[in-house]
Amino acid sequence: MSLLVVGLSHRSAPVSVLERAALSADAQVKLAQDTVAAEPATEAAVLATCNRIELYADVDKFHAGVAELSTLLAQHSGVGLDELTPYLYVHYEDRAVHHLFSVACGLDSMVVGEGQILAQLKDSLARAQELHSAGRLMNDLFQQGLRVGKRAHSETGIDRAGQSLVTFGLEQLAAGGDVQEWARGRKALVIGAGSMSSLAAATLARAGVAEIVVANRTFDRAERLAQIIAENDETDVAARAVPMDAVPGELTRADVVVSCTGATGLVLTAEAVAAAVEGRTGEPAAEIDVPSAPKHLPAAAGTAGGTDENCPLDLTAAQSGFSVMGEAAVAGMAAAELEQHAAWVDNGTVDIREAGRRTPEAGAEAEAELIGALAAAAARVGRIPERRRPEPVAGFVRPAPALFLLDLAMPRDIDAAVHRLAGVRLVDIESLAEASADAPMAADVDEVRRIVSDEVAAFGAAQRAAHITPTVVALRTMAADVVAGEIARLDGRLPDLDERQRGEIRQAVHRVVDKLLHAPTVRVKQLAAEPGGAGYADALRTLFDLDPETVAAVSRAVDSTDKKDRPA
User: Fold this and answer.
1) pTM: predicted TM-score of the whole model, two decimal places
2) Which residues are catalytic?
3) What is 446-474 written as a DSSP string?
């Protein structure tokens, strides 16, 4: 059996795909159960966070395992396999171990070095243990991953390389200013009472907000979180709980809103936020049109010169501010469709009005080059990443916000259309991903990578050594049975021996067998711990003609003992 992980994350997929593929708690349970019920896998664990969905399994066949795990991810996420496949990554054996350890240390997080992932790993392991989908490999892997993550945080300054997603999000809301100065005296509304919402509430309290209101579908959980905040001696924050139907009214009172629920639909619509802004300012919340750079405007459909006929795209779906032939229009297209569109552009069948000094012909030529580059990218990855909104031109300044919104949910809690409302600043997973791409990485990251590499090597050696242990135990058991049989024969042939003589003979025979087996078994364990050493167990079974069923029985006994020894 071998470790396999199939997944997608903020590094491999656009947020829009991650959002659609997000798994509810029930879906995670069903995915783990269906994985161990599938033929290639015997163990499974699901790691699902706001920016990653990963399925770990112990499989006996690589290709069959990849196919089965990919299919199961597609089925339970609700995203078609053809659409999901371009964004999936696969890690196997040592590379899979390296990936999990990197994740545990925060090296693969959206905010490098954040420690929230350790709690999520712990929850993932606990869920797999409850479902009995975690056997020896999953338990060893995740428990060691937790230890590696803790070691990285204790032995290096990886904490300086990044912070929690909550802290990073608040920094983005503060637009580069000091978070404590920005937060001081503000009123906060936290929607949700899970681990991320609790972290957000604690962070806001430490930042110095004047009041925290907690809303949750289960009022008792909201009340419990509010009580914890209010009773914290280290902060002086008023806190109270409200039911979810009180959110619209609280939204009008709040300065800062953090939302992280498990809802599958929107918790805050653009209309609700607009109403809250109007309630705060007394004026309707206006929509702003963020200009894009460069701005290529197609001729209006149905007017003279508008030549969108035969375009393979639905041009009405293109967002304003982008060229009909530009990046937004082709976002999410498959490579084959993109090639058709490139050919259509190349034929010059669109009339473009250039904003600038370039001629329409030069604009069309530039667009054709862009489409060609995008087509080449699509050929490599299968699909162009989706873009939600245009890039603002230099010098464009949004109106000062009256309401700050932080959406940490996946799928999103807050309507992305809120970005267009004047007087509102929305930071969500997508904008956090964009901001974190340029975040500096501390020198400590290199030290953490070294720790991960060392731990991967040690874990692999331990697993390979453990793999041969049942064979060695079976060999020694066989030798003990041979000795016992020969002693019994001796008792029958020499009945006149007294107990002292029998004991001396028995000890002598055991010493001979032990000395003969000692060097080979010690050496075979050393060899098996090295890369490529898995074949030594097979060689040992062949040389000594060991019964495979005996070896399997020892393996089952070892696994059973491990389970009894593990803490609940």
Assistant:
1) 0.59
2) 50
3) HHHHHHHHHHHHHHHHHHHHHHHHHHHHH
